[in-house]
Please model this.
Amino acid sequence: MSEAVISVRDLRKRFLVNRSGANSLKTRLMWFKHRQIETLEVLNGLSFDIFKGECVSVIGKNGAGKSTLLALLAKVYKPTSGTISIRGRIAPLLELGAGFHPDLSGRENVFFNGIILGLTRKQIAERLDAIIDFSEVRQHIDAPVRTYSSGMLARLGFAVAVHVDADILLVDEVLSVGDLEFEEKCFGKINEFRHHGGTIFFVSHDLEAVRRVSDRCMWLRKGTIALSGNAAEVTEAYEKAAQAHQLGS
Amino acid sequence: MLADLKELWKYRELLVSMVERELRIRYKNSMLGFFWSLLNPLVTVLVMTLVFKNLLGNTMLNYSAYVLAAYLPFMFFQTSIMDSAQSILYALPLIRKIYFPREILPLASIIGNFIHLILALLVFFVYLAAVYAINPQISPFQLSALLMPLLILINLMLAAGIGLIVSALNTFYEDVKYITGVALYLMFFLCPIMYFSEAVMYSKQLEPRPTIYFIYHLNPVATLCTAYRKVLLAPQPVDIGGAEKVPSMPLDWTMLGIASFTSFGTLVFGYWLFNLLKWRFVERP
Model:
């Protein structure tokens, strides 16, 4: 068996949720009166391994902890307890170009995003043509991105992420933004990425896409893994459970 | 804290491009770019000079140069802190998605404004040289102007320290930004910008008041404003509004020492506090 590139052991994440709305010094000073801070257990002890070259997808209802898990892997949060060990460079796919500044041109944003994802200026310059070609926005690359459509933003964001040569790609529900043709291109690129030994961690509600790209699927329910295994089997079980729930309610 | 510094060094290229981005955005949407930002200090000093020379009867030579020498660094201090206060909240969508040392955000605001200060000072030097060309009696520079880098360094440390503190706290309580705004506005009057530090020492009675002078200059910004003037511009008797002028006081090294100590301490404390809180930015309740 090949080496695990992501090992997660007994991962827990707890959030403080403010029910009193506005966050100001005043509410802080009045805490002793109305203490409306609640804790929310989002992840309750996850343990799993992901091996080199695998494509693992995560499904589950809204609020099941999928995005939190992804953010923990991207080092955005610190775990409340448990460990995450990652071997290799990880690149989160910034959805809709979260790292894009509206007033800067597409080209400037590509450089900025590439540097955030760990490339040097020189490396980006070398890949600039490939990125622009892939994103299909060459005509508008020097226009400010506030003039871009959401599809163009998504394509540019995806193009940067797949060209950083990361070892692990974190994908959060982005493939559905482009048109069909671009979606095909993304699947093609993902296959190519995996062909070169890349690992993909994929969060989606699109069960069709899950079945298509992933070898393994994890079903997350209330912060724990409900079921994990072959993508076709897990998605089927998930669909059945959802239908049963709908009939029951 | 050393580990955090090492991590910051690893991401230095991101810091550079963040600064570049900040400057580009600032000057992108206006043709006059940099000169728009110069307009504010120039107009302010013009009005101040008019008021002080013509309405309040100040008779000093080249008064506006003395105001600018203190006002430009003060403006840097003010704008860099206000910009960094916002920096984390503006970038929240980004830092929810991806990891990088969060201190890069306020530091980029500080450094962006710092580059702006350097450019503004260069324009100021050109102005001083022009005044000298027209009226050679006003000497444009003194040898002590070589101490400028030291003052700028102290200034930068202080601004970075306070910027880190304010940006970290403002992420949790947005009131901090308003409180800081008011504090900086009041600071303008508590620093020798419109007036001279000699006025603090003597007031109108010509009785020296060393205790008040000392307490006043415990504020490192006040000390810096005075020091910028002393090292850059020729000493001349100061009009403090009374019948007689008072002689110019020399640069106070003790106060400057205290200011650099305070500034360094603020920077270390700010960095420590920021690192203590930075993991909680994305999950603020």
Notes: The mean pLDDT of chain B is 87.
